[in-house]
Design goal:
This protein has 513 residues and is mainly α. It is 83% helix and 0% strand. Helix 17 packs across helix 18.
Length: 513
């Protein structure tokens, strides 16, 4: 072939491919730093396929989680650490553990009772008591129990070799898995390192030492604890002092008492405002003739969600009325309406303010996390201290539990408004108020409506809990059913709460659609 027949483009592509391959090899050497030729060969094999490519890494198999931790693959190291710790614990338990210790402790406890019953039997025989047969049956029953537990203890002690074998099998499987996936996991980290050189590479000695000490400490502690249960109190119970808890309780109580004394007027006015709104809603929903309220609810459902949903709402209302839950359901809706209205009135403006202020949202986010994750029975205690027992306290508890979704979803909706749309409105001379009312809020309205819906649903979930502190309504019927094991009443009242939630959900979701 003549030199003129060689395509210059193919020659250039070949040179580029060779240069890329050499650059990749050099990057692999820089990344792994140890045994580069081995890793170059395996990384090329792994990179040639989009699927999982099994390889064998002897060092990863031998050192297991220590190797993965030293390489920075902690997402792999920790699961393998758990598996190996479980395997070593099984081996140690089978070799050194007293598998029958719990059974022998039960035998010792029963023997003490048996000795007492034998003495009572001897005294009854000596006195000619008519309870001789009863004591004799008790002694025979305890002796039979001891015999059964001794057989159980012997069976447990005989399981030692099998437990050791189970641990060995688990350890071998874990080691084989680690050796198989090690190069594949490391190649993935190498790919991330190519785009972000701040990712740790190589095998720094401090990382090897930290990984080894951490893994050995965890495994050895677990082995000692399970092999010799109860011998080392530090491993069985957290070292603490009861005075720490008592002092902390006293501090919290003093702080709450101080706050109550210095904010009594504020909470009295706040309670008055909540009670006024709640009384107004109860007058509308409870004292208004049922036919008026039912007609308005059905009409509203029809206008927002359609005729079919309106028929379902009518059936749900008829269910509550025919079973005698009408007044309780309207009381529940009044309580829910008060809590939901206050949550929405406070939450939407708060979300609008926080949407464009990341620092403020970062400040209130932990507070909302606390409100949403803390069990209701926990924050019910300080609420009772400030508001007393009754419907206002139930409204506040419901607001704390159900008020955060509307804030979060308002922020999410406003932050999701495309910047191009906002910039276009600003370029045409839109003011801040026009931008908010005509651009941001309409585009964010689906998310805001979803937040309102979630607030209503979570508020309904608090109906039964709120009844514990004086809230009336359907929650009181469910609570009474729990107290007296009245299954029928509890289920029927629960369905009434469900139907209230479904009606409100269809109204809100229908308006959103």
């Amino acid at each position: 072939m003549n030199k003129q027949d060689i395509n210059p483009l193919e020659d250039t592509e070949s040179e580029a491919a060779l240069a890329y391959a050499e650059e990749r090899r050099e990057n692999i050497r820089t990344f792994v730093r140890t045994n580069p030729d081995y890793y170059i060969r395996n990384f090329d094999k792994i990179g040639a396929s989009s699927r999982f490519t099994p390889t064998f890494n002897l060092m990863a198999g031998l050192f297991g989680p220590i190797w993965f931790g030293a390489r920075g693959l902690w997402s792999w190291a920790l699961p393998f650490l758990i598996l190996e710790a479980l395997a070593f614990v099984q081996i140690a338990r089978g070799l050194f553990g007293d598998l029958a210790a719990e059974a022998m402790a039960r035998i010792a406890s029963i023997e003490g009772t048996l000795e007492l019953r034998r003495q009572q039997l001897a005294a009854a025989i000596e006195n000619g008591s008519d309870r001789v047969d009863a004591f004799r049956r008790t002694v025979e029953s305890l002796e039979a129990n001891i015999g059964g537990i001794r057989e159980e203890a012997a069976a447990l002690a005989a399981q030692g070799p099998w437990i050791v074998l189970t641990g060995i099998i688990l350890l071998v499987l874990a080691k084989a898995t680690q050796a198989t996936v090690a190069n594949w996991a490391l190649e993935g980290r190498f790919s991330d390192w190519l785009s972000d050189r701040s990712i740790r590479s190589g095998l720094p000695m401090e990382q090897i030492a930290f990984s080894a000490v951490f893994m050995i400490l965890i495994v050895s502690t677990a082995m000692v604890h399970y092999s010799f249960p109860g011998r080392f109190s530090l491993l069985s119970a957290f070292p603490t002092d009861p005075d720490i808890r008592l002092t902390s309780i006293a501090w919290v109580e003093d702080f709450i008492a101080f706050c109550v004394r210095n904010s009594e007027t504020f909470f009295e006015w706040l309670t008055f405002g909540i009670r006024s709104l709640l009384d107004a809603l109860e007058v509308i929903l409870v004292q208004t003739p049922w036919i008026v309220i039912a007609s308005l609810i059905i009409l509203l459902t029809w206008l927002t969600a359609g005729i079919r949903t309106a028929i379902y709402s009518g059936a749900f209302l008829a269910y509550m009325g025919l079973l005698g839950f009408w007044e309780a359901a309207m009381t529940t809706l009044a309580l829910l309406g008060t809590a939901a209205c206050l949550s929405i009135v406070i939450g939407i403006p708060l979300g609008m303010f926080a949407a464009r202020r990341p620092r403020f949202y970062a400040f209130i986010q932990p507070i909302m996390d606390f409100m949403q994750t803390m069990p209701a029975f926990v924050f019910m205690v300080p609420v009772i201290a400030f508001f007393g027992v009754g419907k206002p306290a139930a409204v506040v508890v419901t607001m704390i539990f159900g008020g955060t979704p509307v804030v979060r979803l308002t922020v999410l909706g406003l932050r999701g408004v495309p910047e191009s749309v906002r910039e276009a409105a600003i370029s045409f001379g839109a003011s801040k108020w026009y931008l908010l009312t005509k651009v941001d809020l309409p585009l964010a309205s689906p998310s805001i409506r979803a937040g309102i819906n979630q607030t209503i649903m979570l508020s309904l979930a608090m109906v039964v809990v709120a009844s514990l502190i004086g809230a009336k309504g359907l929650g009181e019927d469910v609570l009474e059913a729990l107290q007296y094991a009245n299954v029928g009443q509890g289920i029927l009242a629960g369905f009434s709460i469900l139907f209230c939630a479904m009606i409100l959900d269809r109204i809100v979701q229908g308006a959103r659609k």
